Structure formats: C-alpha cells, structure tokens
Amino acid sequence: MNTKVAIKFALKNIRANKIILIPFILSSGAMLSLFFIMSSLLQNEFVQTRHQSLPVVINIGVVIVGLFTYIFVVYANRFLIKRRNKEFALYGILGLEKRHIRRIIFLEQSISFAIITALSIVGGYIFGKLIFLLLNKVIGDVSAKISDYPFSVVACGITGIFIVFIFMTVFVVSVINIKGTSPMELISKQYKGEGEPKSKIIIAIIGFILLGAGYIMAFVTDGMLKSLGLFFVAAILVIFGTYFLFMSFSIIVLKMLKKNKDRYYKDKNFISISGMLYRMKANAVGLASISVLCAGVIITTSATTAIYGGLENTIESSMSRDYEITSQEYLGSDVKKIEQERVRLEKAANRSLKGDEQISKYYSKYSMFTYVEKHDDEVVFPNIMGKGDNNSEKSIIRCYLLAMTLDSYNSIYGKNTKLNDGEILLTSNSKAMLKDTNIKFLGRRFKIKIIDDIVPKNLAIEAYMVIVPNLDDLIKFSQYYQERENKDLSKFRPSTIFVSSGWNVSNKKNDYESRLRKLTSDDIDLSTRRALKKNIYELDGGFLFLGIVIASIFLIGTILITYYKQISEGFEDRHNYQIMKKVGLPDELIHETSSSQIVWMFFLPLIVSFVHSLVASKIVYQLLGLFGVRNYYDFGVKIGIVILVFAVVYFVIYKITSNVYYKIVSQ
C-alpha cells in the first residue's frame, strides 16, 4: 500500500468515526491548551520579575496538568481503539497486512494530533491572554496588560515535545491492541461478552477495609501537620477502596436483586439488571474513575475558593496596622534595655512624620516566639524532655508558642482586660489543643482564661498564644522556653523578646513609606501591610488559580470518560436492543430499560463522590489551616455551594451524553 492510498483510508476513517474523534480532539486540545498556558506563564518575564513565589506554584501546576492530561488522553484512546476492532478486522479480511493497518493508524493519529497541536498552541495563546489577566487580578496586580503576555517559543517547544510523547504512547498502545490477533479474533472482540461475573466477596471485604481506613483517617486526624502527612495516604486508600467496591460490591448487589424472583422477573427489571450484571466488570472501572474525578473537582474547587475567600482575614490577623517596626537586636533578659528599645522605636515612628501627618492606633508590643512540645498536659521546651523520656510519640504535639504581655494585648486589640498573679490568657489556632485547659506552663499550673483566637493565620502550624500579666512574666517564659543560638546550634539561650511598634498614618503623603525606610537601620525590621498583602495574595491567589486549572482538567476528564463510556455502551447495547425489537418488545419498554441503566451509571458515581467529599471535608479543613482558613462553617458553606453547582453541571453532562446514547441505541 502506497502512502497516497493510506492517506485516503485515513481521511475516510476520520470522517466515518467523527462521533468519537471530534470529542477526543476537542477535549485533548483543551487540556493541552491549559498545559501550554501554564508553560507560557512559567516562561513569562512579567511573572518571573514581578512575583517571587508565583513561579513555584506554576511550576507545580505544569507537572500536575501534564500528568493528568497524559493519563486522560491515553485512557480516552483506549475507547477509540476498542470501538474500531470490527473495522480493523475488516481490513484484514480484505487483504491488508498488519503493517498496512499500522500505517493507516499512524496517519489517522498524525492528522488528529496535528489538529490537537494547532488547537493547543493557538487556543492556548488566545485564551492564555485572558487567563494571564485573570491570574494577575486574582493575585491583586492590576498593572498587568495583554501586551505583557507575548507568545512563548519555549512554551511552544515544550508543548510540542509533550504532544509528540503522548502521540507515541497512543500509537504504541494502538499497535499493541491489534498485534498478534487474527481478523476473526478482532471481530469477536467487538461482540465478546464479559460473561456473568463472580461476586468476588474477598475483594469486596478488602474494598470496605480500605475505604473504612481512609474514612477513619479523615475523621480522626487532628492537626495541620498530621493532616498533611495523612491526607494523601487516606486519599489513596479511598481511591483503591472505591475501585474495589465498584468491581465487587456492585456485582453482589445486582446478584442479590437477581435472587429476588418476585422483583427480578418483571420485564423492565429483568432486562435492566441482566444487562448491568453482564457488563458491570467493564462498567465498574469507568464508574469508579468518574466518582474519583468528581470528588477531585469538588474538593479542589471548594478548598481553593475557601483559601481565597479568607485572605483578608489572614492579612488582618497577621498585621492589624499599616506599618510595624521590630527590633532585631537580641536583648536577653535585661528589663532596662528592653524598655530603652521600646522608646527608641517610638521615637523612630514619630520622626517618620512630615507636615500634618499623624500617627493613629499606635501600639507597643513585647512578645516572644519559639518552638515547643506538648507532652500530655504540659508544654515543655524540647530539650527538657528528650528522646529518653517515657512519653509516647503519639502523645507529643509539636507546636509553636507565642507570648505577649497584657498591656501589649490590650493596646493592639483595644481591650481593657486585667490579670491577677498566677493568671494567664490562652488561645490557639487549633480547637483540639484547647479541649484540655488544665495545661502546665513553666512546669506549673496557672489559672487559665480562654480568649478568641488571635494567632496570626499565616502561621502554618499549630500554636499556643499566651498573654502574661507583665514583662517580668514574659522574661520567665523566655528563660524557660529557649531557642538555639544562631552561631552555635548546639547551644541554647533564652528566647528572643521582640519589641515592636505598629501604627497607621492619617494625612499620609505619597513618599511616607520611603521616608520611613530611610529612618530604619539594619537592627530594625520594617513590615508594611501593603507588602504583606501582596505576598499573601500572590501565594494564595496562585493556589486558587492552580486549583481552578486542576479542577478544569478533572472536569474535562470526567466529561471525556463519561462520553466515551456512553458511546461504548451505546454501540454494545444497540445489537441487544435490536434483538429485543425483533422478539416483540415495545419501544417504550426498551427506552424505560435503557433509562434506568443510564440513571444507575450516572448518579451512583455522583452520590459516591458527594459522600467522599463530605467525609474528606474534615481533613481538608485541617489542611486549609496551613493557609489561614480556620472557620469550618465558612468552608462548609463553600463546599455545599460547590456540590450544588457541580450537581447542575453533572446533570447537563448527563442529558447531553444520554441523548447521544439513545440515538446510537435507536439506530
């Protein structure tokens, strides 16, 4: 066969199989467009020079988008090849050799991937400009312009290489599918039934164990760091448990329905249950995949929107004033020196003013910050109770300890609280750490009063915040809960007592911040709310953008798998339904039977994904503490809204794909 004839075959086959090729090309093009966009953003000079942490987030996104795109495209190609077994067998009967069929497949896929490449590059560049502006708006940078997103030759090359890699994989898989099989074997594949599957009780038990273990981890895990370590373990257990239960428990349920003779031997139930039972082994993998992808869309979208929705609270809790200066000098336990440093900072703040500028909401703060461990009911410095201690690792909570004086607390938060000797105020960014308030500090028990959480929300680990009566008490905490020396990490010293001043400025001139910076020296650190806001929006806004992209990939994958599952089932069922018509079954009954099967296939994965998402919400909420999300009610509202919106989207997918199924079956 010469190339000209092979090209004619390829073009004819593309037109004949457009019902399955067009969705494949469009969905693959959409996913690879996102890959091109992420690669372009990674190479973009504006992103690289204006943002510090964003390139790291985008780099993660390139890897994740590339991985899932590769999986979904290769997975979709499996349905394309399976659907065309009869066609390849016919080529063999007509006298074509395997090498001729390979050449035709190569040309078909070359044309398809050439179109996909064009869609990916052109579509990625056009929509990339809009996404570039959206990204910068999300992270709070309104200075970005469309001209700041030029065409990236490097991103084009990376995308092209990635597409070639996917093409090679797809072609190899296609060749393996027809290699070593005769035309009769290929034809038999088209009509080969699964046979009645076995119940697989052992697999069902394993599935329940895996799913239960994953659910228990999600429910009982407390703490941000523990959640970070166990989340992926729990997710893997739930994923495997989902696949095992769909492959086994669904068969068990269908067989139980079959044993119910009164219910089974009714025209509608007989056809529906029998059809599902004989093909459930193949259906199970697809249904489980859809369930996992749907849960991925819901969890990813709700988590990223919760992160972005809590940014202002994170900024407010981290820095309540526009400007803050902090002494960087180690002051030790010298009360006089600490007081002198407070006066020095106050003078620096006043010298920054010019003209009619005035300081408002001023505060002075004495505070400390160190790493500690909670052993049962006592907060200790790690060096006090070392590895030789009899305490179990499970009873140890590693956390931060923040402390400040009462006058600092009252000044910052506008309170008028009073404390007696032996009393302290206590709060934490983890409710679990406040379940037992009979806690020892400094090796003794204080009378503890619980207050609202004031721990900065950008602190990505569990922490206690202690308010002590005066500076002398803060020095005692500093001497008990020590820190490592900067020069010699094997030695310890009292924790640094930070002296800070924070304020707002009324009638502020445009050059105020630059004047303030000139007044600060190397031993005074200047923090501004504007810079903090920029950094937080850049990092968390980048995660929101990444979440949207990942959710889009999952959604496209869900649509693609669902569509091809319907197409595959439609062609398999068409022959069976034609037989039903010939034996005299009415069209109305056939339609009702297919409808019940479609409903089973569609809404079971949706229900399972909802259950997975709700169970995962607790451990996901714990993880969101790393990003300052500490209100479960707000997160619950967001996940509820996402579930409702996704249910509507999923119903639209159901209507579109089920219509395609009915058209195929009724032909």
Please characterize this protein's 3D structure.
This protein is of the alpha+beta class and 667 residues long. The protein has three domains: 192 residues, no CATH class; 200 residues, no CATH class; 193 residues, no CATH class. It is built from 20 helices and 13 strands. Strands 1, 2, 3, 4, 5, 8, 9, 12 and 13 form a nine-stranded mixed beta sheet that branches. β6 and β7 form a beta hairpin. α2 runs antiparallel to α7. It is elongated. About 1% of the residues have low confidence.
SSE blueprint:
Blueprint: H1 3-16, H2 18-43, H3 45-50, H4 54-83, H5 85-93, H6 98-138, H7 153-178, H8 183-191, H9 201-220, H10 224-259, H11 261-264, H12 267-309, H13 311-318, E1 323-327, H14 335-351, E2 358-375, E3 378-380, E4 396-405, H15 406-413, E5 423-428, E6 440-441, E7 444-445, E8 447-450, E9 463-468, H16 471-480, E10 482-484, E11 492-494, E12 497-506, H17 512-519, E13 524-528, H18 529-582, H19 587-624, H20 632-666
Parallel strand pairs: 4-9, 5-8
Antiparallel strand pairs: 1-12, 1-13, 2-3, 2-4, 2-12, 5-9, 6-7, 10-11
Helix pairs in contact: 1-6, 2-4, 2-6, 2-7, 2-18, 4-7, 4-18, 5-8, 6-7, 9-10, 9-19, 10-12, 10-19, 12-18, 12-19, 12-20, 13-18, 18-20, 19-20
Organism: Peptostreptococcus porci
Transmembrane segments: 20-42, 54-76, 111-132, 152-178, 199-218, 230-254, 284-311, 543-564, 598-615, 635-653
Family: Belongs to the ABC-4 integral membrane protein family.
